[in-house]
Specification:
Helices cover 37% and strands 25% of the residues. It is built from 15 helices and 18 strands. Helix 8 packs across helix 9 and helix 14 runs antiparallel to helix 15. It is elongated, with a radius of gyration of 24 Å. It binds L-homoserine.
Length: 430
């Protein structure tokens, strides 16, 4: 099988290195050879010398996607627009595609998979979501007898590392980000990870596979971790919870709710033990019950494991009729009715609230009476020890619709005794 690669950054280099390092195992398992015959990169000088001697290196994407001898194009260039053009041209030319580009699939997945179907090509993308966790395979293959009830995951290693450092080492948010940058987890501009965009791309792809619906990035309700205070991290631990940036998709009778938001996860839930830069995904099927999957979610070498596995899958499939192996569920056969998404305000979950208050007579009554007036039931209420006339009042509600809660919080925010912005975070439901 002849492959061409687009991009030669960290993941591209790791992929070449994996192909060389484990060539014997790869060849034996596939029953053929995986031969890298062309690379297109903006920096050809960097690739020359690292690729096999016969492999052509150029700075022209067309040299790869239009090369008639290439069977599979491995897209590792990143970005959206150029990658989209390259992948569509490769598919038009009848080439199979392996990509780890979650932004591309979350944005243009529907067009790309339609084109793949039309052309009888495979698009494999295990490396795009939680790289070392084979979650795409699990969703497509292992869970295919199920109706999926929920997918919940810690799918962004950078933000998980930051939240872990804040909790374990007591670092303020900015210092934890700096440490993530120094260790190479966070980019110089960390916004894509900490604002939830990266996780939103991943949950948009997983939702499509889990619920047989088109990819719909716009349907993901997104919030990041930049406003998380260390005091909330500490408070919720004493209440039996841990704050995680949770990506979640859940089907209920009212519709699909897909979100990325900092969420209180019960300490005895496996997701609470996913720390540092690691990822974890919890999938609940109606037949399988809950399943949990854990592993590295970032890094060139771990990503290359998924990319090479995709290449081997394609190699094996090419010995059969490729058309029958085009995505087995999800993209291949969307359900007949259009999905109904739950509007953000209608989403229902218990919420954690923190009110920073003047320690004055009646402040607890102000909070509880406003919540009662709005029909919001309180599960836990706790006042911290006052210091210098100020304190925090912590509340965990029972299930509440977000819009009703926000109206009550809007009124409470105007009370003289309530200082600063009220903190409001969802609590994970099982
Ligand atoms: N930046 C991502 C993360 C890895 O921190 O998990 C690539 O998606």
């Amino acid at each position: 099988m002849k492959i061409g690669m687009l991009g030669f950054g960290t993941v591209g280099q790791a992929t070449v290195s994996t192909l060389l390092k484990n060539a014997e195992e790869i060849g034996r398992r596939f029953g053929g050879t995986v031969e890298l015959v062309a690379v297109a990169t903006r920096t050809p000088a960097k690739a020359t010398g690292q690729v096999p001697a016969h492999c052509r290196v150029s700075n022209q994407i067309a040299d790869v996607v239009n090369d008639p001898q290439i069977d599979v194009v491995v897209e590792l260039m990143g970005g959206i627009d150029d990658a989209y053009k390259a992948v569509m041209t490769a598919l038009e030319n009848g080439k199979h595609v392996v990509t780890a580009n979650k932004a591309l699939l979350a944005t243009h997945g529907n067009e790309i998979f339609n084109k793949a179907r039309q052309r009888g090509c495979i698009v494999a993308f295990e490396g795009a979501v939680c790289v070392a966790i084979p979650v795409i395979k699990i969703m497509r293959e292992s869970m295919s007898a199920n109706r999926i009830e929920s997918v919940m995951g810690i799918v962004n290693g950078t933000s998980n590392f930051i939240l872990t450092k804040m909790r374990e080492d007591g670092l303020a948010y900015d210092l934890a980000v700096k440490q993530a940058q120094e260790l190479g987890f966070a980019e110089a501009d960390p916004s894509f990870d900490v604002n939830g965009n990266d996780a939103a791309h991943k949950i948009a792809i997983l939702t499509s596979l889990a619920f047989d619906v088109p990819v719909n990035l716009a349907a993901v309700q997104m919030d990041g971790i930049a406003k998380i205070h260390i005091e909330d991290i500490k408070y919720v631990e004493t209440m039996g919870y841990r704050i995680k940036l949770l990506a979640s998709a859940r089907q209920s009778e009212s519709g699909l709710f897909v979100s990325v938001q900092p969420t209180l996860v019960p300490l005895d839930h496996m997701l609470a033990s996913v720390n540092g830069e690691m990822n974890g995904v919890h999938i609940k099927g109606d037949i399988s019950g809950p399943t949990f999957h854990y592993g590295a979610g970032a890094g060139g070498t771990a990503t290359s494991s998924a990319i090479v596995a995709d290449l081997l899958d394609i190699g094996r499939m090419l010995h059969c009729d490729a058309r029958h192996f085009v995505p087995l569920t999800g993209f291949a056969a969307p359900r007949n009715s259009a999905p109904v998404y739950i509007a953000p305000g209608a989403s229902v979950a218990p919420r954690y609230l923190r009110f920073t208050v003047n320690d004055t007579v009646g402040v607890l009554a102000t909070i509880s009476s406003e919540l009662a007036r709005a029909g919001i039931s309180v599960d836990i209420i706790h006042q911290d020890v006052p210091k210098h006339g100020h304190t925090n009042v912590l509340v965990i509600t029972h299930d509440v619709a977000l819009e009703a809660l926000n109206q009550a919080l809007h009124s409470l925010q105007k009370a003289d005794s309530i200082e600063y912005e009220i903190v409001s975070l969802p609590v994970m439901s099982n």
